[in-house]
Task: structure prediction
Amino acid sequence: MPLILGIETSCDETSAAVIDGTGDNVEQRSLVILSQDIHRVFGGVVPEIASRAHLTSIVPVVERALNEGGVKLEDIDAIAVTSAPGLVGALLVGVCYAKSLGFAKGIRVVPVHHMEGHLFATSLEHESAVPPFTTLLVSGGHTMLLDVEAWGRYRLLGATRDDAAGEAFDKVAKMLGLPYPGGRHVESLAREGDPTRFRFKPPMVRRSDAPGDDDYYAFSFSGLKTAVLNAVRGSSDIDVDRSAIARGFQDALVASLVEKTLRAAREYSRTRIVLGGGVACNTALSSVLAERALQIGANVFAPSPRLATDNAAMIARAGLFRHERGEHAGFDLNAHASQPIPGLIAA
Ligand code: KG4
Ligand code: ZN
Result:
């Protein structure tokens, strides 16, 4: 069975993992994630600092993943590495390291699209999270709604017109004086918040929406963000209002994500819905979605926080699929800041 070493350096996590398996029968042998805390000081990821930190940590992180997985580099059949999308300097550290290891040891390199990694992540923990399914991928940089007919056959139904869902959480966190990255802080604050005090309209959702409409599956969060900013500015006592504003924001954002996801599951008659990306850690999102999905006879699968946020196990998993299809890169492999997810078919 192929042994895959995964490497992920697209943003501010240096991660390596080893998986073992064929098809959907996969075992995760190890997963090491080193988060770069330094960006907290700046309130966001500083690309140059991220690249330098990856350079310092990549060797020990990969060595530790191999050790914990009980394997030697010589046993590895393929090295899967995130080559797009992300911060190009950060991506280049992983790509160059993977190519060097591959060249030195005669191991093939498999380029992986970061979002395809997120799409595969949940299947590492839930054996039923396999196609066909509807998936909502919500991270700091992307918001994508896809119909997954099979691995490698994706219909892109909707994406965000402006901010990504995670980005909206992070910006609202900043407005509320919470640390970066703010998603989980907004979630815990919202838990104490009165849901009736600040009601924001769920973006891009109207009763008159019908399949075939341009924005039937589309997302937009910048209007909601402005509404939150106005509420913060208009508050006479932000210490009193903070949790209720967080709650109102989260309720509106979740309502929009849930509504669009259910539209997709209904339209394509899917009985499985898979969440992925850092915002999939949000339990308000997964529980509201699970509750509403039951009404259409669908089950929701959400990854644990470790696999929802950036990690190399998901890159190894997507890489195994691409490896089994013989999709290997030459030594001219480059990193790309943006690139469409592979395997797109007409919606
Ligand atoms: O997938 P990810 O680790 O990195 C990217 O590829 O962007 O996602 C990070 C994003 C951040 O915006 C973070 O605030 C958000 O996921 N996030 C959350 C939660 N945990 C992480 N958003 C909402 N609720 C959470 N519990
Ligand atoms: Zn990600």
